[in-house]
């Protein structure tokens, strides 16, 4: 086979694989989205895979082709928020250089928006994580610890640069993470505070904790 034909064939195969992966990701995300809403409304224990399948308009065997059981779906739901938060954090830190105060503000603002957008996912995690397997629980905790560690490093560097108060302990990263994760307890869509107001207050609180004000 001519080299040009081989390259064309390889490109076509790669394109086909990419489309297949996108299709699988779409269906997986759709299952997670519907299951998250049902777990949020009814509770994990009260919701069955039959309920999830019925709401999706598919059969239960279809679900098993993507997740081995209901617990695996719960683990995927619980991982959404922290995975997106880490992606935002790493993208922000790798972007155009800014001072540490601006970096912390941007990270907290973007992650706060994620928690608001993914509020049902976050509530399901907080309420139902007791149903996770030990392995899934540890894996998600490692992701959370990675987020806290990178925020702590950002604060430590800000202290060294003189941008944060010199007596600020980098452990406040854990407090900042706590503030972010508990947004669903004091924010309600359509409530007295808008999402923008909540995020603004969150950023201001994080900066105070870091000793930037």
Automatic annotation (TrEMBL):
- The protein's name is Transcriptional regulator, TetR family
Extract the GO molecular function terms from the UniProt entry. Answer: DNA-binding transcription factor activity; transcription cis-regulatory region binding
DNA-binding listed as a keyword: yes
Where does the record place the HTH tetR-type domain?
25-85
Keywords (A to Z) from UniProt:
DNA-binding, Repressor, Transcription, Transcription regulation
Per the database entry, where does the chain bind DNA? 48-67
Q: Which PANTHER family match?
A: HTH-TYPE TRANSCRIPTIONAL REGULATOR RUTR, HTH-TYPE TRANSCRIPTIONAL REPRESSOR KSTR2
Superkingdom classification of source: Bacteria
